[in-house]
């Protein structure tokens, strides 16, 4: 069963207007499925190459000859980061063919990481990022299942909770022991311990020194590891909101595991009931709101606000120069703390939203609404 993705129109538009379109996102988030769905309409004019398939890799032993023979097709190259030496050749072919829709490349690494190899495609390539399923894409799934299983298709759509958990466990092992090692050498056991530590402090400001001491590695090594997890979409780093308020701001970044189901697997949580009683429950809800914000408004600037005096707002979102404050409350009866009110007064947002797992929404006071995840994005659209 194919579920429609919000990025479909964006990717199709990019193919029609740019020589190279790159669809990036974490492994197993549905990039290949999305592209194959879109490309069904191209029939014989479309060629798909998976660089994890030996037979497809063999076709590229003489890449220049093979790709030159596909001049009239849209060529899709999946897991492009496994053969970075292709990028200069793609540039040459794109300049020779001089048309849009030459190549569609898929990668499980961030634009910054890919650009270390794809610098030669500057001005010829557009990037589109795909996330695991957003809440708006899975209307038949309960919020409890979305909490527990996360958005990775094989986890969210698994036949039962056990299969979902086992898939996530397998994903973590494979990711650590195979996928990450293509970028840098590290000890998988150490990286897993770091990932688990980050799950325990999910959504908190990161203390590199404390993490380094616990792992027996340097602060710089911890930073490098977190940067690698960020570049492969496994963690999200939210920078502090900086303003000229004369306040003593907390300038440390907050780190989130990018998928609620992966948080649960790292913490050994196998059911929604166990998750709901776990101290991480509130931060997992923040992760869910964050990944949906990133996926829906990829160009928005998202920061967090916190002062030494205790004023705090989870996310400060800048959408086309409109400042929106978002506070996440994993409760059906949310209230704002004194620190929340002070932060709102400091920030002066155009509007404040308190996001809850409830399906209901209501006004709390002037300029402040309690909203469901669905209603949050409906209202945010009005600021665009």
Radius of gyration from CA coordinates: 22 Å
Please state how the strands of the largest beta sheet are arranged side by side. 7-6-8-9-10-11-13-12
Average per-residue pLDDT, rounded, comes to 92
CATH class of the largest domain: Mainly Alpha
* Major β-sheet profile: 8 strands, mixed
Taken together, the total number of domains comes to: 2
CATH topology of the largest domain: Arc Repressor Mutant, subunit A
Q: CATH homologous superfamily of the largest domain, by name?
A: Winged helix-like DNA-binding domain superfamily/Winged helix DNA-binding domain
Q: Distance N terminus to C terminus?
A: 33 Å
SS strand fraction: 15-25%
Low-confidence stretches: none
What is the ordering of alpha helices and beta strands? HEHEHHEHEHEHHHHHHEEHHHEEEHEEEH
Task: Kindly list the characteristics that best describe this protein.
384 residues; alpha/beta; Rossmann fold; Arc Repressor Mutant, subunit A; eight-stranded mixed β-sheet; 17 helices
General description of the model:
α7 packs across α13. The protein is 42% helix and 18% strand. The protein has two domains: 8-129, Rossmann fold, CATH 3.40.50; 135-383, Winged helix-like DNA-binding domain superfamily/Winged helix DNA-binding domain (Arc Repressor Mutant, subunit A). It has 384 residues and is of the alpha/beta class. The strands form two sheets. The chain has an eight-stranded mixed sheet, sandwiched between helices. Strands 2-3-4-1-5 form a five-stranded parallel sheet, covered by helices on one side.
């Amino acid at each position: 069963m194919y579920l429609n993705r919000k990025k479909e129109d964006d990717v199709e538009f990019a193919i029609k207007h740019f020589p190279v379109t790159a669809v990036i996102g974490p492994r197993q988030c549905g990039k290949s499925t999305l592209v194959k769905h879109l490309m069904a309409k191209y029939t014989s004019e479309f060629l798909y190459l998976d660089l994890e398939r030996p037979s497809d890799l063999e076709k590229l032993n003489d890449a220049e000859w093979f790709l030159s023979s596909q001049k009239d097709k849209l060529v899709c190259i999946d897991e492009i980061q496994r053969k970075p030496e292709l990028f200069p050749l793609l540039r040459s072919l794109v300049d020779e063919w001089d048309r849009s829709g030459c190549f569609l490349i898929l990668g499980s690494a961030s634009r910054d990481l890919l650009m270390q190899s794809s610098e030669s495609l500057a001005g010829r390539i557009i990037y589109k990022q795909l996330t695991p399923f957003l809440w708006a894409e899975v209307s038949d799934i309960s919020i409890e299942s979305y909490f527990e299983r996360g958005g990775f298709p094989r986890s969210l759509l698994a036949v039962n909770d056990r299969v979902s958990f086992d898939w996530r466990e397998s994903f973590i092992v494979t990711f650590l022991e195979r996928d990450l090692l293509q970028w840098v050498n590290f000890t998988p056991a150490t990286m897993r311990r770091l990932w688990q530590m980050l799950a325990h402090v999910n959504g908190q400001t990161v203390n590199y020194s404390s993490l380094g001491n616990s792992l027996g590695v340097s602060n710089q090594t911890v930073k490098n590891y977190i940067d690698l997890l960020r570049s492969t979409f496994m963690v999200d780093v939210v920078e502090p909101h900086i303003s000229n308020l004369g306040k003593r701001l907390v300038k440390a970044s907050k780190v989130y595991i990018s998928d609620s189901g992966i948080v649960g697997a790292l913490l050994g949580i196998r059911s929604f009931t166990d998750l709901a009683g776990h101290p991480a429950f509130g931060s997992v809800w923040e992760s869910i709101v964050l990944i949906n914000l990133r996926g829906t408004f990829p160009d928005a600037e998202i920061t967090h606000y916190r002062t030494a005096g205790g004023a705090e707002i989870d996310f400060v979102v800048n959408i086309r120069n409109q400042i929106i404050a978002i506070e996440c409350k994993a409760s059906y009866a949310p209230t704002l703390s004194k620190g929340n009110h002070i932060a709102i007064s400091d920030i002066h947002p155009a509007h404040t939203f308190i996001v809850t797992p409830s399906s209901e929404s209501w006004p709390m006071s002037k300029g402040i609404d309690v909203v469901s995840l669905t209603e949050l994005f409906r209202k945010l659209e009005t600021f665009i």
